[in-house]
Structure formats: C-alpha cells, structure tokens
Write a structure and sequence with these properties.
By secondary structure, the protein is α/β, with parallel strands linked by helices. 45% of the residues lie in helices and 16% in strands. It has 14 helices and eleven strands. A five-stranded mixed β-sheet has the order 7-6-8-5-9. Strands 2-1-3 form a three-stranded parallel β-sheet, with helices on both faces. Helix 2 links the parallel strand 1 and strand 2.
Length: 340
C-alpha cells in the first residue's frame, strides 16, 4: 500500500511537469482562425494550372487549424515568375500567402534566367499535387507531325514569356536537335495559345498534358492535334507512342541536358510559401496539405477533373528542388550554351 501511495505521488508529479509543456505546445501551435490564405497562381484564368489552383483553394482550408478561407488569385506574368518574385520579395511570411508556379523555376534559377529574382530552394515547399507532363503539340493541319518533321519544316509555336516552359522547351529543341520551331511569344497563357492554334495563328504550342485532357477533350476526340514529344523520364500511360525528350538525346551530354528538363516533370505541381516562415507554421501547412491529398472529397473532385494525383510531401519536394542546384557544372555550362 505504501508503494502504491508513492507511485501515485510520482505519477501526479509527472503529470504536473507534463501539463505545462503540453499547454505551451498548444499555445505555440499556429492557428489560422479568422484568417484568409491567398494562393497566388502565376497563370491566367482558364488554364489547367488555374483549374489546379482552384481545386487546392477549395479544399486546403478545412485541413488547417482554424479552417481559414483560401482564396485563389491569378497573377500571370513572366512565365509565372511575377508570382514567384512577389512571394520571395514582398509577401508576408506568416503563412497567409502561398504560391503556385512553373516546375521549371529551379532550373531557370540554375541557368541564370534574368527574370528570376528568387532562390527556389529557399521557398518553403508545402507539397506536390502531381508530377506534370509537358508536351509539344501541333494542329492537325500542320506539316509537322513528328520531331523528325520539325527538323525539316518550320512550325510557329505560340508561347508566353521567355521564362516560361512553353518558350524554353521548343527553344532547347531548336538548339540541340535542330528543329525549326518559330517561337511566337507574348500570349498571356495556355488558353490564349490554344485559341491561337485553333484559329490558325500558330501551328502549335507546348502545354501541359493535363490541360489538354481536362479542357480540350474535343481535340482528343476529333484527333485535332499531333503530340510530338513529352518532357518526362518515362512515357505517360496515356501517350505510349510518344517519345520522351530523353529518348531523343543522341549523346550522353544531350541526354543529361534533357534529363534536367525531364526532372521538372518530377517536381511537378507543388505549392510553397515565402522564405523566412517559422518552422512550426511550415509544419502545420505541410500537415494540412498531406491531409487534403487523402480527403475523399478532394480525391473525388480531382478525379472528376481528370487530375492524375501523385502527391509528394513538402519535405521530399524541398529535397528534390534543392538537388537541382547540385547539377554538374559541365552540364550547366552546356545547358547555358544551348540557350544563348
């Protein structure tokens, strides 16, 4: 009985020690009650990226403490770098502003794109929705139906800014493979380049395969486009007969260069916060993102939109993006020479 009495006292003492620590932890855990989170999407309305941004905004808030309202804001410009530069240099660092930009950002920084005024690895990456397959397409009336055709005939390609994927990829193919893509830049976004292709203003465009599947089903049903190449390490199950960019490499250097571009597909579509956020705030947002990705309502809506979910945690995504900076110097130099 005496031993039992002392054991009870010991347990009570432990409880007294633990209680303040638990209370302190609860008080320090960030809450977003009564707050609004702005999700700044670096693309115009109507694109596949716009659809993904709205999907995130509709579901993320209920998985974050305090259930904040998440509002999506389109911030197109400079191939989505307008939004990236804003988050890096201007946005508050309290978790109330998040971003969603091109998966090429880390590569563009590596190669010295003058539009980049941020350090991609210093952003706090929250999580990835999916990998993202970029494809180069031409309209069905174009003489260019394969990459081999593009090496023989000129094809005009609609594009946004010089820092965008849709500008970079055909430009790299021109430099490395000798294709004859004539890049017509200045379109606001994918929706505008798609319309330009339909109207015959340009022969083709480079865009996300998801965008085509989700917003241009009539193109596929009517066989209105030719898909020339996909920028992934492995062929998408939807496109078993379309070569990957790595397959087109003829030398080890070309394949390593194309591997750098294909790696962007692995980075895919993720969201991030500004640098300098408190670790506990980043942890809360990452936990909320991970919970959203398994939410049946979110999964059902993503399936309805034909979004191929392939989530990656914020920690892993952060490591992948930081790994881009470890690209061998000779490959960086080669890539830069191809982009002059």
């Amino acid at each position: 009985m005496i031993r039992s009495h002392f054991a009870s006292l010991a347990l009570a003492g432990v409880a007294l020690l633990i209680a303040p620590a638990v209370a302190a932890a609860q008080q320090s855990s960030p809450t977003f009650a009564g707050k609004t989170i702005s999700l700044n999407v670096g693309y115009g309305a109507g694109s596949g990226n716009d659809i993904l941004g709205r999907l995130i905004a509709a579901h993320l808030g209920k998985h974050i403490p305090g259930n904040p309202t998440v509002l999506m804001q389109n911030m197109p410009g400079a191939g989505s770098f307008k939004a990236a530069n804003y988050l890096y240099n201007v946005a508050p660092k309290d978790g109330t502003v998040l971003g969603y930009i091109t998966q090429t950002a880390a590569t563009e920084e590596l190669l010295g794109n003058p539009g980049v005024r941020f350090k991609t690895g210093q952003f706090n990456w929250i999580g990835r929705i999916s990998s993202y397959n970029i494809v180069t397409t031409t309209w069905h009336t174009s003489k260019v139906k394969t990459i081999a055709d593009a090496q023989k005939f000129e094809a005009s390609m609609g594009a946004t800014g010089a820092g965008s994927t849709v500008y970079i990829y055909p430009n790299v193919m021109n430099k490395v493979l000798g294709t004859k893509f004539k890049i017509v830049s200045g379109y606001e976004g994918t929706n505008q380049t798609a319309l330009a292709m339909e109207r015959g203003e340009v022969d083709g465009a480079t865009m996300g395969w998801f965008t085509i599947k989700s917003t241009k089903k009539d193109w596929l049903k009517g066989k209105k486009i030719n898909v020339l190449v996909q920028f992934m390490r492995e062929r998408d199950a939807d496109l078993p007969n379309v070569p990957t960019i790595i397959e087109l490499g003829r030398t080890p250097n070309e394949r390593q260069l194309f591997g750098l571009l294909a790696n962007e597909g692995e980075i895919g579509k993720g969201i991030f916060g500004p640098p300098g956020m408190k670790p506990e705030t980043v942890a809360v947002l990452r936990k909320g993102f991970d919970a959203m990705m398994t939410d049946p309502d979110f999964v059902a809506e993503a399936d309805k939109l034909q979004v191929d979910l392939s989530p990656m945690s914020g920690e892993k995504l952060q490591a992948v993006i930081e790994g881009v900076a470890k690209t061998p110097p000779d490959i960086i130099a080669y890539a830069k020479s191809m982009l002059k």
